[in-house]
Each structure stands twice: as C-alpha cells, then as structure tokens.
Amino acid sequence: MRRNLDLAALRALAAIADFGGVTKAAHVLNLTQSAVSMQIKRLEESMDQPLLDRTGRGVQPTAAGEQLLTYARRILALNDEAVSRLTDTEYEGEIIVTVPHDIVYPHIPQVLRHFQTMYPRMQVQLQARNTGKAKEHFAAGKCDLILTTESRCDPGGETLTRLPLVWIGAPGGQAWRHRPLKLALGRYCAFRPGIVAALDKAGITWEAAVESESDRTLDAAVSCDMAIHALLAGTEPPHAERIAHGGALPELSSHLVNLYIKPGSTKPGVQALADLLRKAWDPRQAELAAE
C-alpha cells in the first residue's frame, strides 16, 4: 500500500532546515513548537527513519532528511503553484525591498523563500544599498520596505533587534595583531565613525589597507588576511570568523536593525513580508535557535 506524504509536515521540515531549529520554524509557521515536533515525529514514523539530527548544537537534517528535503521543496512548490493557479489573483504585483549588504545574510534568503511559498504570484525585487541610500530611496517613494542599520530609529520605523559590532578576520588570520592595524573600510559604511573612534580612544594606530564602495572588495581583503573589518554579530560571512583577540582590540558599539514600511501602503503582501522579517530578527528566538 502506497503511503502519502503530509504536506504540512514537509513544510515544517523545510522551515526547520531554513531557519535552523524547531522554535524558529514554529514561529514562522504560526504553530506551537510541540505541533511542529509532532509533525516531524509523524513524518519520521512514516519514513521509518530519523530525518533530523538532534545530537549536536542546533538541528540538522540527516542524510535521509536531506534527500527528503529535496523532494519536499519540489512537492510544496507544485502544490503552491496549483493552488495559486486555481484560486483568485488578489496577491499579484511587485514589492521592492532594500537591505544593507551586511545584513542580507543569514535571514533574507530564508524570508524570501517562505514569502514566495505564501504568495507565489508576488515578485520581490531585492536591492542592496547602504543605509543612507536606502533611506533616500524610501523617502522618494522608490521602495515598499527597507531595513537599516542605525544608532537610533526614526519616527515611523520600528526596531527589530539590537546587535553588537564584532571584529572579523580571515580564519586563523594574524592581521589583527599587526600595528598599525590594517582595516578594510567601506567608504559610506555607517559603522566607520564608531570603529575609528574606538581605535583612537584605545590608542591603537591604524591605516586603511582597503577602502571601497564594494562590499565584495572588502570581503576579499578580509578573507585573504590583508585586513580586518567589523560587522554586526551573527552576520559574519562563511569565509571569515570572529576574532578572538582577548582584549587586544577595543569593544565596539551596538546598532539597531530597523524596519520602515511605506506609509499607507495597501500593496498586497507587504504586511506579510514585514511580519516574516520581524519573526526572523525576533531577539527572543536567538537563545532557542540551537535547540
């Protein structure tokens, strides 16, 4: 007798893989943690094998889970396409979202993936701009939502979280030990004044080894141990790591991640996308992400 896969359970499996834990998946799916856990348990019983590895830090798919996840994404996409084609066309159009390059990861790809399953007919145009440019475009009415990294939140915005700046460098790199300290600096980076002020206050000599408007250029300089940089905690790229300097470098300030929504926006999907962003950056979930 053929067995049928539970679409809700497959959606839960995909959410766990995307957001790194049962708690965050439940938060995004608007379910209780126990409900998501039960869906996964039934799915594992149906497959007669474990689909999630819970032995280490965080929850990761097993080999069988990874294989099923590939099918799950295809099944869910086909399901959502069929539902969309046979139902009304209320949720159509384009949403323009502007996000600073340094906070695109890790949350934005997962948020957009889940938004597309919810509103497959909506197109999201993602733009990466520094906070200053993002706010200029927002003020001119050129985008529907923006995320910013700032020291305060302007009227009309809302703060999603506050994150500290941390020093990052190449894995196992030694650039942070050199004096003058070599920095990779963004020409219009909102963090730059605070970084420079902290070094000057600590009496650490420094020089701009790389100065560019291109974040890719800065990333390359850091990854090859030519210089170090500072980013918000949790946004470190895979080719870099947080520097364990043991107090040799000064502590840096923290910044807000703020959300601004176009005033009076009635465009379908905007509020749903904003809600996914709120959930992704919900600081209450950070401590539980490693369950």
Number of helices: 9
- Helical fraction: 25-40%
Strand content: 15-25%
How many strands?
Answer: 11
Tell me the name of the CATH homologous superfamily of the largest domain. Answer: Periplasmic binding protein-like II
Shape: globular
Query: In the CATH classification, which architecture of the largest domain applies?
Result: 3-Layer(aba) Sandwich
Q: Biggest sheet, in brief?
A: 7 strands, mixed
Series of secondary-structure elements, N-terminal to C-terminal: HHHEEHEHEHEEEHEHEEEH
Distance between the termini: 36 Å
Number of domains: 3
Structure summary:
The protein is an alpha/beta fold. It is built from nine helices and eleven strands. The longest helix has 24 residues.
Structural description of this entry:
There is one protein chain. This protein has 291 residues and is an alpha/beta fold. It folds into three domains: 7-86, Orthogonal Bundle (Arc Repressor Mutant, subunit A); 93-161 and 256-286, Periplasmic binding protein-like II (D-Maltodextrin-Binding Protein, domain 2, 3-Layer(aba) Sandwich); 163-253, Periplasmic binding protein-like II (D-Maltodextrin-Binding Protein, domain 2), CATH 3.40.190.10. It is built from nine helices and eleven strands. The strands form three sheets. Strands 3, 4, 5, 6, 9, 10 and 11 form a seven-stranded mixed β-sheet that branches. A two-stranded antiparallel sheet has the order 1-2. A two-stranded parallel ribbon has the order 7-8. Helix 1 packs across helix 2 (22-29) and helix 2 crosses helix 3 (33-47). The radius of gyration is 21 Å and the shape is globular.
